[in-house]
Amino acid sequence: MRALTLALALTSAFVASAAPAQAPSAALKQAVANPARSEANRARDQYRHPAETLAFFDLKPTDTVVELWPGGGWYTEILAPYLAERGKLIVASPTDKGLEGSKKRLAAKPELFGKVEAVNFPTLLGGSGVAPGSADAVLTFRNVHNWRMGYLQPEKQDYSVEAFREIYAMLKPGGVLGIEDHRLPEGASDERERSSGYIKVSTIRRLAEQAGFKFAGASEVNANKKDTADWEDGVWTLPPTYAKGETDRAKYQAIGESDRMTLKFVKPKG
Description:
The protein is of the alpha/beta class. It is globular, with a radius of gyration of 18 Å. The protein contains twelve helices and seven strands. Helices cover 36% and strands 17% of the residues. The chain has a seven-stranded mixed β-sheet with strand order 3-2-1-4-5-7-6, sandwiched between helices.
């Protein structure tokens, strides 16, 4: 009963802190509409709401922005042109194959990514990272669960605490940390964070606040009430992965991509 009461309290606190949607600027809309973006990436805008998400993070075209673990570069295609003229974009990937993959993607489209820098994150896995106090904003999309799951660690050791400390160090005072991730219900077992790809809002808040961040709000722009977050194959059951292949594919396609939290934190100025 106590666990249920706590879960309901945490859920209520989160909903109460949800911030109203902010209108994207013309520059953000233009970056999302950039014809250089791949058609496959554009098709996922309906699930990811990039213009609204970046507006919520209060991103400015003059910012120095670090995108952590850019993966296939879905957000990089938007951030690069948005920051090209007056800002700066740094993509930070795991050492070795992660960094090599990022550099290959950047080199493949020099007209789009020519000014983007590539470094490592987190440096506990090796390589050189972002200079301390150099970023106006750090963004990461659907990655905190990977750190919690110990992705790329031989013993699957959770290194989320160290990751958040490094993020805090790279930001300037007053800098913004924007996080989007697959949302695990507060009443679910904590153990599911280690295998399902979902993570609790309370876990991310705890990690960020322990590192020194102040919670600045939440948005429901990437919420999906159709996602029950209890799939046998975790979040990868849903699109775009479709872990079950053609089995019940139409069912999962109708659900869409996962239910996601969108959280904003700030590094205190004082």
